[in-house]
């Protein structure tokens, strides 16, 4: 009988990443990039994070002018869900 082969992708984490998971509150940071248009960023903020159009525009301008902006705060698990969604949309995001 042939055993089924399974591929396991191993992830490594830094101490900083492990410690960051234990914090109670985390922030999802949206970073400026040269790829996404204002319209796409605004659309994503409205669709996934439930911002109004004017709020999303203000965030887009802040990201453009300051390089980044916190767009969501919550537990690591909550914030990570939205990080993955926005990353799939092509946005540059990270968790602090």
UniProtKB/TrEMBL annotation:
**Coiled-coil regions in this chain?**
none
**One GO BP:** proteolysis
Q: Which domain of life is it from?
A: Bacteria
Q: Keywords in UniProt for this one?
A: Hydrolase, Protease
Q: Is the keyword Ribonucleoprotein in the record?
A: no
Q: Which GO terms describe its molecular function?
A: peptidase activity
Transmembrane segment boundaries: none
Q: Which residues form the Adaptor protein ClpS core domain?
A: 24-90
Work out whether the entry's keyword set contains Hydrolase. Answer: yes
What name does the UniProt record give this protein? ATP-dependent Clp protease adaptor ClpS
């Amino acid at each position: 009988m042939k055993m089924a082969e399974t591929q396991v992708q191993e992830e490594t984490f830094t101490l900083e990443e492990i410690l960051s998971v234990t914090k109670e509150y985390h922030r999802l940071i949206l970073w400026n990039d040269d790829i996404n248009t204002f319209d796409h960023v605004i659309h994503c903020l409205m669709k996934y994070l439930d911002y109004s159009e004017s709020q999303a525009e203000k965030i887009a301008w802040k990201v453009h002018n300051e390089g980044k902006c916190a767009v969501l705060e919550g537990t690591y698990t909550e914030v990570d869900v939205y990080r993955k969604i926005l990353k799939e949309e092509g946005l540059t995001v990270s968790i602090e």
